[in-house]
Amino acid sequence: MYDVAVIGAGVIGTFIARELSRYKLNIVLIEKDNDVANGTTKANSAIIHAGYDAEPGTNMAKFNSKGNPMFDKICEELDVEFKRIGSLVVAFNDENMNMIKELYDRGLKNGIPNIEIINGEQVRKMEPNLNNDIVGALYAPTCGIIGPWELAIALAENAVENGVEILLNSEVHNINKTDYGYRIFTKREVIDTKYVVNCAGLYADKINNMVASPYFKIKPRRGQYFILDKSAGNFVNRVIFQCPTKLGKGVLVAPTVHGNLIIGPDAEDLNDKERLDTTADRLQYVRETALKTSKNIPFKKVITTFAGLRAEPSTGDFIVEESKEARGFINVAGIKSPGLSASPAIAEYVVELLSDINGGFEAKEDFNPIRRRMIRFEKLSADEKAELIRKDPKFGRIICRCENITEGEIVDAIRRKVGATTVDGIKKRVRPGTGRCQGGFCSPRVMEILARELGKDISEIVKDSPNSYILVGNTNKGLGEHAADELVATSIDEN
Ligand SMILES: Cc1cc2nc3c(=O)[nH]c(=O)nc-3n(C[C@H](O)[C@H](O)[C@H](O)COP(=O)(O)OP(=O)(O)OC[C@H]3O[C@@H](n4cnc5c(N)ncnc54)[C@H](O)[C@@H]3O)c2cc1C
Fold this sequence. Notes:
- By secondary structure, this protein is an alpha+beta fold.
- It has helices at residues 11-20, 59-67, 71-78, 94-109, 120-126, 148-161, 204-208, 280-293, 339-358, 382-391, 407-415, 423-430, 443-454; strands at residues 2-7, 27-30, 47-48, 82-83, 87-91, 116-119, 136-140, 144-146, 165-167, 172-177, 182-186, 190-198, 218-228, 239-242, 252-255, 261-264, 268-269, 302-313, 319-322, 329-333, 398-400, 405-406, 471-474, 487-489.
- β19 and β20 form a beta hairpin.
- Strands 1, 2, 9, 10, 11, 12, 19 and 20 form an eight-stranded mixed β-sheet that branches. Strands 13, 15, 16, 17 and 18 form a five-stranded antiparallel β-sheet that branches. It has a four-stranded mixed β-sheet with strand order 6-7-5-14.
- The structure holds flavin-adenine dinucleotide.
- Flavin-adenine dinucleotide binds at residues 7-13, 30-33, 38-41, 44-47, 49, 171-172, 199-203, 207, 223, 265, 308-310, 335-341.
């Protein structure tokens, strides 16, 4: 029997699993998809917000302001790229300036350090590419940028290294209350556990309703983005927001931690929790809105677009609490933005909650917070590269030309704990397919390496979700050992 079952391996579930692994507990992390970080954690703005935006006194404000300063240490321990580049919320008129003052006051109440209101001239000195009609801004130096899925993968890896069991392809479809706690039914397993932590993102309402009355609903709110080529990555130095609206923080222009430029999102309420398509009209809206921040944004350098779905709770705030009807069943639901920024603080709080219910947890003396460092070939010196290639010639073979990713890095991403098993799993971990050609050149090579390393036939390799097959049949029969070369490729829908 497990002590704790965590449902959902997004950034929230992986963070909680890793925090729990500090203690002498039997923990299982259950995920319906075939990889961690395939839900909302895969598609968002990737900003570690300073924390001035949320209404003081809300869970969003509390966990964001507490979470933001925790990122330096965690990212160092887990070898996740994180840059504290600061942010500006720009104002175009007096009405916007009133909002800036309101955000500043909220920031003070939320305890956000070093925020200041600056004038238009100061803005343009800091960001020469912004429009001349900007009259002022709120400057928050503690805002950061990160790779959210890389963080979740690193957390999962570190949790597993510290004893957490992870079950992928295991959709929870029912939960029964028992004398000792809960019996969870997935498509493949029956899991007995004392406590449950519900981190199922867009489906957290469905999971709650398996054991208690429906007291909240999660609605999807879609946001769409452009990603621009790395040659546009220095267009701005900081995260540039416009004033927030009722629907969210508005369209931002920001560098990504990998050196691209990200522009978006819009906000659109939907009913379908799987609608991750992008649409021409909404992208046009994002484009026109972003041009208010800077008319010089080089939209010719767009290399891809994508959409993410916020888990919008009917309560309006993060729900982080024990269910009133189910003892030891913790809902961590409605974790919309700034959920990524709040994730370390949420995880710490959930562990406290569970520990209180249990009457304390015993710390593990051998908990290891450090993850083995990633090999980032491109960032090594010439001598280091030569040494690595001497030890393993796979580091001498470039697979992704856009991002300069070697076969050695891809093999490492497969062989690590919670290793990649899909083309997008490789892309999330070591980035082939994220560059200018969007995988046009490297995807077949990545598939070959995956098939070889996993002992599978190449036709079994999927793009992302369990049934997203890429090769669907032979063009010719009877080609013997070369049959795989002749398999027909479906179109790869990048997002
Ligand atoms: C457009 C957009 C922009 C955003 N920008 C930011 C930002 O800049 N900064 C910030 O701080 N936050 C941002 N956020 C919010 C942030 O992305 C989320 O708060 C965070 O990713 C939520 O993580 P999660 O683990 O709760 O959800 P998810 O990542 O969705 O994880 C939930 C997991 O549960 C699994 N699951 C669901 N049902 C079941 C089941 N029945 N059985 C097993 N598993 C199940 C899913 O497959 C999924 O992997 C943004 C969100 C969006 C959509």
